[in-house]
Amino acid sequence: IQARNAIRGWIRAALPLGSGDDVGQSYLHSMVETFIMSLYERGHGAYGEGGGKGSYYYTKRYAIGSGLNSPNLDFLPLVNIEDDDVAGVVEEKGKEHLWRSSSNGTETHTSSLDEFVIGQLLAKDFVEALERNDKAVPLPSMGWQGSYQSVTFLSHNSASSTALGCGALDFVHASGGQLYQAMKTILLNRVYEGRAGITHLTRVIRAAFIASFLRDVGLTKLELPDDKASGNVSQEGISDLVQSKPPFVVCIEEMIKKKAVSHPIFTRALRVMGGPIHEAYLRGNLVDIGRNNLDGRQARKLVTPEGFPNSYVRGASGLYLRLGAHVESADGSAPSNSTASQSAAAVKGTHLHVIAEPVIPDGGTAFGGPVTLRVIENEGQCREFVKTIPEDGSRADWGPILLHNRSVSTVKKQQAASGITDTSTSTATGGSAAADSAGAGTAVNNSTTAFSKDLLHKGGFQALELIRITNITPLLWVRLDPHGLYNGRLNIMQQDACYAEQLFHDGDAIGQVEAVRALAERPLKIQGTPKITNVHDVPIAELPVRVLGDCLRGSVALHSDLPHNPAIRSQAALAIAQWQNNKAPESRHVVGGTSWLGLDLLMQYFKERYYCNGNVLPVNFRRIVLHKHIAGGASGGDTTSDGGYQYLDALSEKDERENAIEFADEIEIEEDEEYRVRAACVTAIASIRAKDGTPPSVIEFLEDVLVSGDKAAVGSLLLHHEEDKLKRKQSRSLRDMTHRRLVGPNDDDVSNLPYVSLSLVAEALLALCYVNARPQSDFDPTTGRPIQVKTEHPIAPLMKSCRSWLDWDLERERIRTEANGGNLSGVGDACNTNIAPCAITALCHMTLLKQCTTTVVGNSDLTKDGDFASGSKRKSGVDELDESSTAQFYINIFDDRRVAKADAVRAAAAQAVACICCAADRNDTPNTEPMGLLLSLEFMLDRILESTTPPGLRLTLALLMMDACTGKICSLQRVGSFAGQGRLCGQGARFTNGPLGSSCGGDNGSSMLLTVADSTLPAANAVNDGARRGLRALKDTCKEGINQTQARVARFASRLWRTMNGEAVTSGASPSNGGGICAHDSQLRCQLVALWQWIWPRHCYQVMRSQSWHAVEGTPQYYAMGMDQVIKTTVEERDAAALDDQALTELGKAVEDEIDKQKWRGEMASEAYSNCKKEDMTVVGQPLPLVKKDEAWRLGGWVASTSQQRRAQGADGGSAVTKIRLLVSKSTGTA
To answer: Does the pTM of the predicted model rise above 0.70?
Structure first.
């Protein structure tokens, strides 16, 4: 982080941005910063590829191929001016990663490239979730609960602080600003690299820095050596045609001439550098299209999409596109059933028909242009086609495409595998353990179940081999836009078997994650199904989750395919939970059958890895690797083979382990990333629901996990005699400095020291927020009404464990504070603050859940007047769990001055205070004022105004105030999501998409975890009910006069107004002469302005009513009502405000103009459709209507939302479905 901050400061100092009359903060600085950091992530990985030399997890075989030696940076070093013979070479991207191999990582190690591209995908999940929640044209104003001053999504205009003063930063979005800019530029970098090529993008960024340096030293142009600048001279002395300047020189001189870098200059430089080869991908407008720009030919408003780069920098949405892929013979019949008919079909041809349908949401942007369609056929043939996405949002027919290879399977094999005929079973292509036995399939078919108790197929089949039998076409899979030219949301309607092949064989990690998310929604209710119902006694409907289970379990379930790396397997665990929630049973008490198949697969993984004799084993973060030098063989840097490396724990026999240790030349310790899969598995299990709540087995599992975490894990991976042998080998190796040692001569052996995995405990605690359990109920025989049985609440044991972990971590923090009392630096303390924030979040959530699902109301510490009860000591006889249900408990944690608590702990405590206070008003009690929301807002504003509060915590508290007013504070759990040690893109994706992450756009297993209702999230529903009542009280128009509560609202509004206007507000709410906290903190100011606009979009009527009391100023009643603390405006202040308004008139016009441009950008697609719409919307090539952002869309189900709306409009194809050749009557599962 410190290195990134240094890079950010260097970029802003060395790269000036131009334009003096525009408003906004340019994205170029953030984009350059993101690009430079992406080079590091490509070479070293997000977690460090191989580690640093001398570090504990240093692994030579990975470190040798990291950094500048990484194959991901093979384009470096890069010359600025290319020779003529290489100037026209087309840059191919992604070919070397077409197929999965060991270069993607191992079962316990993720390669740096996979980490990098998955980070890009998670960033897209984060940004797309922010954008899709706007009702119409997305503006970073009330849609994201940000300030109207933010102006635009991501401004490509640049504003000089010299010209505008410090107020230029006020146009940074409060919740989006730097955070949104950082995430958005990750997506932009992928688009720029895909369209211009990473080499050309690198040269343009170099040119920008060189131009800045040359301008600073007074040069006006770049002088090249004679052999580069002059033309060739013939022997006769006649000069040939003077060579044109190289593109690199042209770009530098243009930037020197303009004296700065701006959006148009940067884009033109990219086009010049890319040349004609990339021209089609870099085409677009550089000037914003306004509402008054007309098309000269038709005298209509100009509604053509802006294209690159405006549509990507400031577009109102990303690309959404549905793709249908269907295989059939040339005569329109189903694929062949026999060998003879296959030969005949080969003559006629088997065709792939592809229909593309762009989806433009209401307020979104239309995208069009060339795109790559990749088709992978059987036997490994790969072809790429350049197709065109229509700019008008109409359907496009991209077929037919002739397929050349034979089918993966046949109908005869399907029937044999399903037991329809007596023909001996044939195994799937690719082989299996049962391939040599013709009777293996018959034996399985005659058994009562196809799987053993450890959920492995009795016939030895992998799930991939089973699902492959259902594919009777030559197509393996189809991918659209694999190079990221659009980086949009793409949904491909292809077979389940195609996604399974893509998951196990596509070398791109993004393609693998896309396949995982698609399989989580399969089988779809409307997709064509094969004529058979099972394959080797396995129902076809179960095959998608079986494939995901094999991906998660890795080598335990695989024998003919490489296991996936931990990053992909973590996504598979979350996808299994999504699949289970999509197929959730009606009752949480359902047992037997396959109702809990997804849960069983997750539990089986955990039992295989972390259970022993019914106890949960501790986590080891390391693996011992033995290396034997191979003469003339693979080197240590060769990651495509084992290179003589072998994991010690992969050897099960005692003699094998001893011999391996004896003959090993080197012994290394490698980080075991299995803990990442474990954390994802715990989250997935906790998120599984039935229609009526969490199953009891999940609660029991979470209890075991939390109790086991209380034991200190010991890092020994060896038997006693093996450890002695290793130490003797280490002592001998100390004399040979050429070999890597397990420990150094002056190091302590820390391999066997006990430790507690804080991050894993924190993940398990945060997972408790997704539990939904209710106590057992019975019926009163006299009244027939349900009554609760007097037993302990199901989550009570979880609450006790959570409270124990909280007390333990707070005590550790106290000890650290005393130990660091000498320096009080606080440096590095953030790594120790995982558990307490997650424990506070989970404890507060479960406390509210217990109160909402029982008839006994928890203790409230709100007095009759809406204040907190005095006293922080525990009352005698009060249980710890009852104490945690009071707001005062969390206030004491926040205000404890004896311990220097981390910002995350204090933020979690403030979040809990807001939840408890709002939930206290959940019931509409007569003659009771809802004071909870006001009380929590006052509490957080008081802490913001404290001089000792850090700036980061102040902004977090302001965001929590907005969350409380918008119904997000309990459902999204901001502090718990961002308090972990993961990457920002992953934390943001979890915050916006829920614990199970994003979906493929159809059936969304995360929707029930994001839908706030009494049946899905009782605690969040109670908090929102109370916040809703409190918000109505804040917006009261005071028609019947003003009372004490309304006067209190006026005082709070006065303090908020003075604070956000830069005045120094004391505890008495009266301004002082000095500047306030917002005078130098524009981020905080924007967020408080957004809060004001959300609560009082027009006027604060309480303040207006209170100002009418100034006529009786000085009376006892005036002071009793606190009217002396309400803001009032003098004549001098009105005159000064009028002068300010006059001085800022031009700036205000610029702001309004920018906002109007952004609104028109979101209305262009709707205007274009109204100009050319026709009655028959089923015709291919006819523009389709825009899709409204309904509830399904906002929850991520954009495919389901589109299907429902277009079916209602008659735009889903109707009788024209035959154009796609989906012959339902002859369905064979190939749709």
So the answer is: yes
